[in-house]
Design a protein that fits this description.
Blueprint lengths: L11 H13 L21 E11 L5 E8 L5 E9 L4 E3 L3 E3 L4 E5 H7 L10 E10 L4 E9 L4 E6 L1 E2 L10 E6 L7 E8 L5 E9 L2 E10 L4 E5 H7 L10 E7 L6 E8 L6 E4 L11 E7 L16 E9 L5 E10 L24 E2 L7 H4 L10 E5 L3 E3 L4 E5 L14 E7 L6 E9 L5 E4 L1 E3 L7 E7 L4 E9 L5 E9 L2 E10 L4 E5 H7 L15 E8 L5 E9 L4 E5 L9 E8 L2 E4 L3 E4 L1 E7 L5 E5 L5 E4 L5 E3 L6 E4 L3 E15 L9 E15 L3 E4 L5 E3 L9 E7 L5 E11 L5 E11 L4 E4 L6 E11 L2 E12 L5 H11 L8 H10 L4 E6 L2 E6 L11 E2 L4 E2 L8 H5 L7 H22 L8 H13 L7 H4 L5 E3 L6 E3 L6 H9 L3
Parallel strand pairs: 39-47, 49-55
Antiparallel strand pairs: 1-7, 1-10, 2-6, 2-8, 3-4, 3-5, 3-7, 8-9, 11-16, 12-15, 12-17, 13-14, 13-16, 17-18, 19-26, 19-29, 20-25, 20-27, 21-23, 21-24, 21-26, 22-40, 27-28, 30-35, 31-34, 31-36, 32-33, 32-35, 36-37, 38-41, 40-45, 41-42, 43-46, 44-45, 46-47, 48-50, 50-53, 51-52, 51-54, 54-55, ...
């Protein structure tokens, strides 16, 4: 891109437009683009103007301005639409999101502005104004006539306040004129001033001067080559190909031009280019992705016809020049690869570990990418040198050499080498099918044109439309490409795209979308997406060119987009490790990848896999070792953690002046770290043999601190098995489960009344593997306060003759203790209070000494319950019922015997409760009762001879 001053008489309309835009979206502190370094973390911004020299709504044409953002931020812009005679309409402010494709239909836009689309604004030019970085918005005007299958592209030219890319000399060629064909040259004055230009036609070895052209401000002139030839007393049959040169007078160039050739009979249509002389730094040109012959079945051009490429070369000098044409074509099946030379035709997704050390690496295709000899990827066929005469234009049809190639081929790329100084030959490459109703124009770029190495291109896919991005490495060294596909607001990154020397690769956007393979961020191109954009940029200082082909098969039209966004490679800005956190069991491994973040001259970001240029190390080689045979492989050795660090040296930004040579201004070493955890499992709480006491409001549950620890994260599933064996022996077992978060201490409340020796097992599935750990601890009783016991016993027996009777039973049975200190099962603590009688040995247990089923040994609430049949209060009420039944039996024998009083009945019930009365019928138990019938059978008397007489008195004397 040239750097020079623009004319001082800036159009008033431009000033007004930019003022309007800045009022809408001010950018304080901006500065004009300079010749110094452009690209850092904050690229400079300045006012921008993009000129599209032609649009048409006449004769069945429609025109669509395709804009693609290459900015990382939303952009506001406005458009100035000029009629052929310079009349102007200003649009409202529009906006475009980062990476977005925006299609602006000129007919609908002008209609919305109230413009006359059938008269004043039927044809004209467009300027777009914005504030931004070097090239934050790229675009092309697509002018098409679907009924006639005509389409041609109108390239943009930058014309910023303070600098301009408009050349002083415009040179373009025409070709293929015959019969009813004509070439139309559209020339636009991009300034508000009147300018004059000299016009020359060169054909048949001579250059002819025509009358000067005078342009009013913003005026567009349509020049017919047939008419201009007629003014020279020549015809298209005498000059089917030739060159037009337009030289503006004065110091401030403002004329831009585009052209087309159309045939209303066959549908032939081709775009004529006017290459910028300032971007011609080499004596070699390149055209990418040209159909030839009958394309292969998997070619983007399959079924579209039989194609003959034409190379149209024009010699701008007054001496003959030899020209050598070389055809480069793909060999093998890797031409559609999106991974790298000879790689997969669809992206490969990373698979994260763990993987067994002896297992095949599922990332083998990534960790060991194919590295074929470039000679095996690209075939080359050089034609014998051809001569282009002085001031002559030659149409070289390649029909005669097609059969010299290993047909069929998906496409070829064309290299045009000439002998003169850079810029002394201009050339165009177009491929025409045999019916001439489809012409595929291939943009021809100079091999040292830095701008050709980037793109911001639209794509569209439907049942009749395919979009294919062609990328060519024009040099002798490999070239990495950063590539971001945007659709429906989603970004999809190809991070391993690398071209071999001289290789051309084609990315089929339908196949890329339909593959639905996630990128390294997990993003996919939405399955239903039909429109989107692609931003791409070279990452190495190697000559690269590319273009997007949108092929409308039903309409027989092919649109070519080569909108550039940056003149130099993207600079490196950050290194990221992936995964940034990983977990492995011992004996397993994972692959570590480093992804580089590149930023282009507009600050647009691209991600690229730089793993194989990075070096890796481990901070703890006893835990994780970086395998020396696969330098990015992390092998887990033992539980613990290690930091894996990758380092990578890269260029942070390039100098963009001059454009054709982008020296690196600064190299830097970047590092990125990943934390690796090797999984194990241990129990940090409780500790082995630890004793937990039952507490809380009911003194029948314990709070146990549970914590399973690991270098890895996850969930621990606990199984707690409770066991208590008394001296009877009577055995209690219970089991319960819970879960905790690993490395977090959790206070767990044990089940009600479950205690004794506890075997706890923690199980966790970490990094896909199961780990277990066990430990033994104890849950024992606690000293229950006297007042707590008394209050409960009062509440359990409130309607009897002796309200506090249960306290006396508790005192006699257990000395008011549910638990006593003892050493059992390997631990000293409060174990259940059992009967110590030699004949019983814990046959009864707890506060009111109920029969030992051990289900209530650790639960004094159940032990004393009036509603649970295991409880002392419940059992006593049952004994009251038994005593009442036996009283009835005695009354049957002694009809005059009165009822026992409430207290007397309780005393007989205590006999039954004592457990020493034996079992059997009432008559069998009768000798043990505290109250028995008198000998005359008319009253009840105390039975002091009863073995339980003392027990009953002790209970009554012990009531609290």
């Amino acid at each position: 891109m040239r750097r020079k001053a623009v004319h001082s008489g800036t159009l008033i309309i431009v000033a007004l437009a930019l003022s309007s835009l800045l009022l809408l979206n001010p950018y304080p502190g901006t500065k004009a683009q300079t010749t110094t370094d452009c690209c850092g973390t904050n690229p400079p911004t300045a006012p921008r103007e993009m000129v599209f020299p032609y649009y048409s709504l006449a004769d069945g044409y429609n025109s669509t301005l395709m804009l693609v953002s290459s900015s990382p931020k939303p952009l506001n812009f406005i458009m100035a639409i000029h009629g052929l005679n310079g009349q102007t309409e200003i649009s409202n402010s529009m906006s475009i999101q980062p990476g977005e494709k925006l299609a602006v239909g000129m007919g609908s836009l002008l209609t919305s502005l109230g413009a006359d689309v059938t008269g004043t604004f039927l044809q004209g030019s467009v300027s777009v104004y914005l504030e931004g970085t070097i090239m934050p918005l790229a675009g092309q005007m697509t002018v098409e006539n679907p009924a006639r299958h005509w389409v041609h592209q109108v390239d943009m030219v930058e014309n910023d306040p303070g600098r301009s890319d408009i050349p002083a000399v415009l040179s373009g060629e025409w070709w293929g004129l015959s019969g009813g064909r004509d070439a139309t040259i559209m020339v636009t004055n991009a300034s508000g001033n009147t300018v004059t230009a000299d016009v020359f036609l060169a054909f048949a070895g001579k250059e002819h001067k025509l009358d000067p052209l005078v342009f009013n401000g913003n005026q567009t002139k349509l020049l017919s080559v047939a008419e201009m030839l007629g003014n020279l007393n020549a015809s298209v049959s005498e000059a089917p190909e030739g060159r037009i040169t337009i030289i503006q007078r004065g110091p401030n160039p403002s004329l831009v031009a585009q052209g087309r050739v159309t045939d209303p009979v066959t549908g032939f249509s081709t775009t004529l280019e006017f290459p910028d002389p300032a971007r011609q730094h080499a004596s070699a040109l390149h055209a990418s992705g040209v159909p030839i012959g009958t394309p292969t079945a998997d070619s983007p051009f399959a079924g579209d016809g039989y194609f003959t490429p034409h190379v149209i070369a024009s010699n701008l000098t007054d001496k003959p020049q030899p020209v050598t044409i070389t055809l480069e074509y793909p060999e093998g099946a890797g031409w559609r690869s999106v991974e790298g030379p000879g790689g997969s035709t669809i992206p490969l997704a990373y698979v994260t570990g763990p993987f067994k050390k002896d297992a095949k690496d599922p990332n083998d295709a990534i960790t060991h990418p194919p590295n074929p000899d470039p000679v095996t990827l690209t075939g080359r066929y050089a034609l014998a040198p051809l001569t282009v005469g002085a001031n002559s234009t030659v149409d070289f049809s390649l029909a005669a050499v097609v059969n010299q190639l290993p047909l069929p081929l998906p496409y070829v790329s064309v290299r045009i080498q000439y002998s003169g100084t850079p810029g002394s030959v201009i050339a165009q490459v177009s491929s025409v099918d045999e019916n001439q109703d489809l012409v595929v124009d291939a943009h021809t770029a100079n091999e040292l044109d830095g701008w050709a190495g980037s793109g911001a291109n639209p794509w569209h896919v439907d049942s009749q439309t395919d979009s294919v991005l062609f990328l060519t490495d024009e040099g002798d060294q490999p070239a990495r490409i950063g590539l971001d596909v945007t659709a429906s607001g989603a970004h999809y990154y190809l991070i391993r795209f690398k071209l071999a020397a001289h290789e051309t690769r084609a990315i089929d956007f339908r196949a890329l979308r339909d593959s639905q393979v996630p990128d390294f961020k997990g993003n996919r191109i939405p399955a239903g997406a039909s429109d989107g954009s692609v931003n791409w940029v070279r990452l190495d200082d190697a000559p690269v060119e590319g273009r997007m082909m949108v092929i409308q098969k039903q309409q027989g039209m092919a649109e070519s987009y080569d909108c550039a966004s940056c003149p130099c490679p993207a600079g490196f800005s950050a290194l990221n490790a992936m995964p940034d956190l990983f977990s492995l069991p011992p004996g397993y491994y994972d692959d570590i990848f480093d992804t580089g973040l590149f930023s282009d001259c507009n600050g647009y970001q691209f991600y690229v896999d730089v793993t194989y240029s990075a070096t890796f190390g481990s901070s703890n080689t006893s835990v994780i070792k970086m395998d020396s045979s696969v330098h990015n492989r992390a092998d887990a050795l033992a539980p613990g953690s290690a930091t894996i660090t990758g380092s990578f040296e890269a260029c942070t930004f390039y100098d963009t002046n001059p454009d054709f040579n982008c020296p690196c201004e600064q190299w830097r070493i970047f590092t990125a770290s990943s934390t690796g955890n090797v999984c194990g499992l241990s129990i940090s709480s409780p500790t082995s043999g630890q004793v937990f006491s039952m507490g809380g409001g009911n003194y029948n549950q314990a709070t146990v601190s549970l914590e399973a620890t690991s270098a890895c994260t996850g969930t621990a599933n606990w199984t707690l098995n409770f066991t208590y064996t008394s001296r009877l022996p009577a055995t209690f077992t219970g089991s319960t489960t819970t879960s905790t978060t690993i490395n977090q201490s959790t206070n767990y409340t044990t089940p009600v009344g479950e205690g004794g020796q506890v075997t706890a097992q923690a199980q966790a599935t970490l990094a896909g593997q199961s780990f277990t750990k066990s430990i033994t601890f104890y849950v024992l009783g606690a000293a229950i306060p006297y007042s707590t016991i008394t209050s409960r016993l009062y509440s359990l027996y409130t309607t009897g003759a002796t309200p506090h009777l249960l306290t006396g039973i508790a005192e006699v049975e257990s000395s008011y203790h549910q638990f006593v200190q003892a050493y059992m099962m390997g631990a000293t603590g409060d174990w259940p209070n059992g009967d110590n009688a030699a004949s019983l040995l814990d046959a009864y247990v707890g506060l009111m000494m109920v029969p030992n089923g051990m289900t209530q040994g650790f639960d004094w609430i159940t032990d004393t319950s009036a509603t649970d049949q295991r409880g002392g209060a419940y059992i006593f009420n049952q004994k009251l019922s038994t005593a009442s039944t036996c009283m009835g039996v005695e009354q049957q024998s002694y009809p005059s015997l009165p009822l026992l009083s409430g207290s007397q009945l309780e005393e007989n019930a205590l006999v039954f409760y004592s457990g020493n009365s034996g079992t059997g019928t009432c008559s069998q138990v009768s000798p043990h009762l505290y109250w028995v019938p008198a000998s005359d059978g008319t009253s009840w008397v105390e039975n002091s001879s009863s073995p339980e007489y003392t027990y009953v008195n002790n209970v009554e004397n012990s009531i609290q």
